[in-house]
Amino acid sequence: QVQLVESGGGLVQPGGSLRLSCAASGSIAVIYDMVWYRQAPGKQRELVAGITRSGNTNYADSVKGRFTISRDNAKNTLYLQMNSLKPEDTAVYYCNADISTGGVRRRNYWGQGTQVTVSS
Fold first, then answer.
1. pLDDT per residue as tens, the chain (120 positions)
2. Are residues 96 and 5 in contact, defined by beta-carbon separation less than 8 angstroms?
3. Dist CA 86 CA 63 (whole Å)
4. Which of 10, 35, 80, 110 could form a disulfide with 20 if both were Cys (CB 3.0 to 4.6 A apart)?
């Protein structure tokens, strides 16, 4: 059984910063691509940033230059450093990962989400 658990969300003022973490646990052999998504009330879930196992990254245009995605493969942990936060960044942030528990098969897993609220 594999679990993804996000942490680090909360209430922050505009212009502030937060660091999200996503810890993967269970019978993990290899973690491949890891991705942060977010979903604001009344909106579809959208990709925020992604990172490959080797460290290649991609970002949504709306967060480029403000957010930084990173990972620690030894700790099976994904991070999202969010700076210069705006009210429109308010959403539930979800961790997503492709994980192998052995062999060549991969499965896609989701975390339960962590709330980020940007408000004065």
1. 899 999 999 999 999 999 999 999 999 999 999 999 999 999 999 999 999 999 999 999 999 999 999 999 999 999 999 999 999 999 999 999 999 998 778 999 999 999 999 999
2. no
3. 10
4. 80
